Structure formats: C-alpha cells, structure tokens
Amino acid sequence: MRRRAALTALAAAVIAGVAACAPSTPGSSTGSAGGSGGGATADRITIGTTADVVNFNPLVGNSRTDSWVTNLMYPHLTQMDETGKRIPYLATEWAYSEDGKTATVKLRDDMKWSDGKPVTADDVVFSIETVKKEKFGVIAGLITALEKAEAVSPTEVEFSLSRPDGTFVHNIGFWLPIVPKHVFEKAPSVQKFANDKDWVSAGPYKLTKVERGQRYVMERVENFGPAPGGKPTVKEVVFRVFPDVNTEVLALRNGEIDVIANVLPPTTAVSLKNDPKIKMMEIPSLGWAHLQYNTKRKPLDDVRVRQALAHAVDYESIRKIALQGFAKTSNSSVLTPAQPDYVDPAMKEYAFDVNKSKELLKQAGVTNLSLNMIYDQADPNIAKWAPMVRDSAKQAGIEIKLQGLERNTYIDKGAKRDFDIYAGSWAIMDNPPANMGLAFKTGGFINYAQVSDPKLDDLIDEGQRALSPAEAKAPIQEAAKIIHEQVYDNVLYVETFNIAHSTKWTNFKPMPSELLSIVNPLSLAQAKPAS
C-alpha cells in the first residue's frame, strides 16, 4: 500500500502559451513590441519587467525576471494552481512509501529538449543530485533528507530519504527546474555555468534573442506535448525591460505592452483602478512582510526586548496607509490565512501599546535602546513603512536608525546576519513544515534571526516527518506559537497583490506569488484575446 500525494492527469491547458497582440518589428531594440493599434491576435504578447535576466541558469537564478523567462524554458515537476496547490507538469503522479522514506515520481513521456533528445528521469536525477553535491541555493536547504535519486526507468524516479519527509516531493516539484543532463554535465561546476547562449530547453517557448536593457524574445515550440493541439497558441513572447514601474505603466496605457509582470505598488494600483484600458487582478500572497530581530545580538537575545519591539509597531496604520488597504493581518503568525490547512484562529496580533513596550524594556533593564534596521531601498512598500516603524518605536523611547540599502548590499548583509533588525518580505512561503525548517530551525538557510531553539527544532522535525497536512498540523501550530511568543519573527501583514494587464486580454490565471505573477506557463496557457 502506498500513500498518494497526488494522482491526476495533466490538464491540457497547463502549458500552452496563448496570447498575443498586434504585430510590430521585434528586431528593433527601440521600436514598439506591444499591442498598440489594434486588437489582440495570436502573434505576440509583450510583457513588461523592470530588470534584466541576471542568470540564465535556472538552478541558480533567483530574480523575478530570471524566473519568468526560464520558467518558460525549463520544466518543473509540478505547477501551482491559484490556491497554491500542486498540479502536474513534467510529473504525472507521485507517491510516498508507507514509512515515508521513499518517494516515487512518474514523468510524462512526450517532452523533448530543443535539440531533439527526450526529457527523461536521468535529467531529473542529474538536476537534483547536482544541487545536492554542490550545495547551492534554496533547493539545497529543502533536500537535506535526500540520500539518493535513481532513474528506475526513463519515466520514473525514485528518491531514497534518510528520514520520513512529507515535504520533499512538494518542495522539489515546485522549486527544482529540470535541466538537460547532456548539456549541463559538461560544465566543471553547474553552479558556475552561465548558460548564456545556445540554449537547449524544453518549455513551451525557446529563447531566441537577447538585447540587454531592451528585450528578450521567445518563440513557441512547434511540438510541445502538454499544449492543446500539441503546440502553444501564441507565436512569440517578448519581455521588454523598463527603468521603473512608472514607465511600465505608461507603456501599458499606451498599448506598447500587454502585461506588467511585476506586482504593482498599492499607490500605483489605486491610480489605475478606473482606467478603462487596464484590467486589475487581485490575489492574496503566499508570503508575508516582516521584521526579524537578530537574536545573537544583545539586548535582542532577551525575549522581553523583542516583545517590546513587537508592541512598538502600529500594524493597522502600516496596512492602511503604506499598503493602501491591500493587506491583511496574519495575527502575528507565520501561519497566514493563505494556508487554510494550518492557520490557527486562536492566534492574536501583537497590540500596538507603547506603554507595554516601555514596561517590558524596564523589566529587561534596558535603557536608551538604539538599533539599526536594514531594508531594500528599491522595495516601494517597505520604503513607505520603514519610517512608520521608526516613528512608532520612538514613541516607546526606542531609536531605530534606518539603513535603506542597494539590493545586493541588502542581500549580502542578510546572508551574513549583519543587522539588528531585518525588514523584508518572503515572496512565497507555501509549505509551513518546509518553510519553518528554512527560516527558524537551527542553521536554517534563511534563518536570518539566528534562532536556535531545541523545542522548536523538534516540532519542525515532527511536522516534516508527517506525510499529510492533517498529520503535520498539530506540531506546526505548536511551533508557530513558539515563534509568536518568542518573537522569532514579527509578521506585519499578508499583501493582496495587484497585477495589471490590457483589457484586450482575458482569462489570465494569477498565482499567489510575486515570482509567478500572471506570466507563468499555466496562466499564459489559458489567456486569450478578449472578444
């Protein structure tokens, strides 16, 4: 008897690229590649982004534009529906053994790399074993239970695990891009392989032209099994690069582009609500915005000081003013309303109470508290609420020195745990047992607060051993209570994303993550010209 994590047929519409706009001249780096001058057709869809691709190697690329482009080139085992549930893509079904120490995944047999070679279990094994061997990226932190991956047949992979891990297939299915073994194995180090030319891919589109700072042109694959009728409907996808969101919005209004891939800042979204040429889509995020306190720095190692800081934040004002109402409380819990299988209705948000904050600091024997807070100065939301955190803390007698940083510097300081307070957001936290292991377990890959709590570690381990959300719920809820009580993470809100596209298009399927937006393969498969 085997436990079924999922067993469904791949929906015919999952991967098709369906959409386009009026033709233009894609060869010009300055001319329009958008939909001005007519209705949408099946020739081209033009998508706006505010950044170039940083890395064409999908195993190491982690920016939004990296993901949007490479997701259309390299398959994952699974996709995600609008609720965050896993659905088949390269994988058709998956299962765990009764003891949870073996996971088996079956694959489609009709997908090919662009050089004609079939996509097989060997490619899956190579992709995951390479990450395991070279230990890079978030994926490495999600596969610590993996002992061995083996191709049982060209269409079946068996994963041997050192311990029961009910998060394993869920994690690799969504996060692990599958790359062609026969191409990537030639690199001395896959982690350092640029993959910046002569791409061999297996998605619904192949990358044909790169004009950095301008555009990325992708042409459909004529024989792509998962697409309705065997090939994507849209002939060409063009990602155009703009210097900022305001320029993107102007291009959308002028009909130069059809979609803005990135999530819009709340103030921008409000300004577009009544534009008859633009359709706004809203969807709750699977991530959250938060403050983390460095528990290895005094006096932040004292829970009373962290609690004092938590009570010195005006959460409702942040949601109302900085987010323009496009945010909901998580009740100060890492189990957000977007996770109905795990959310705990008994959790309560920290009260904004400066007197309580002062009393806690007094109990801790702390006076004249002064801390630095780092944040990404390019993040429009955090740039708005960071001063609000500073100002409300001042009412409690706490000085917070803001350090708005260039993104790479910000990422580096976070990775080195070089801060007192870390202001940021997780783009997607869709699997609580796995996410807690990354963010709060001793030595976790994104454990920025440097939490080290044996009781919490044990509860997370128990949640990860469970083979279903029902089994994992109790230990994970208990773990969330510890995180709340100890203020290992101060969750401010769950954002409601705003995504814009031309009214010439309809039937997009937004995913609850800024990394997926409405330009994921599932969404492009179902988008079509408005009648």
TrEMBL record:
Subcellular localization: Cell membrane
Gene3D superfamilies, per database record: Dipeptide-binding Protein, Domain 1 (3.90.76.10), Dipeptide-binding Protein, Domain 3 (3.10.105.10), Periplasmic binding protein-like II (3.40.190.10)
Main location: membrane
GO terms, molecular function: peptide transmembrane transporter activity
Gene Ontology biological process: peptide transport
Record-annotated Solute-binding protein family domain positions: 87-442
Coiled-coil residues: none
Annotated signal sequence range: 1-21
Topology of this chain in the membrane: Lipid-anchor
UniProt keyword annotations, A-Z: Signal
GO cellular component: ATP-binding cassette (ABC) transporter complex; periplasmic space
Pfam families registered for this protein in UniProt: SBP_bac_5 (PF00496)
Family membership noted in the UniProt record: Belongs to the bacterial solute-binding protein 5 family.
Protein name: Peptide ABC transporter substrate-binding protein
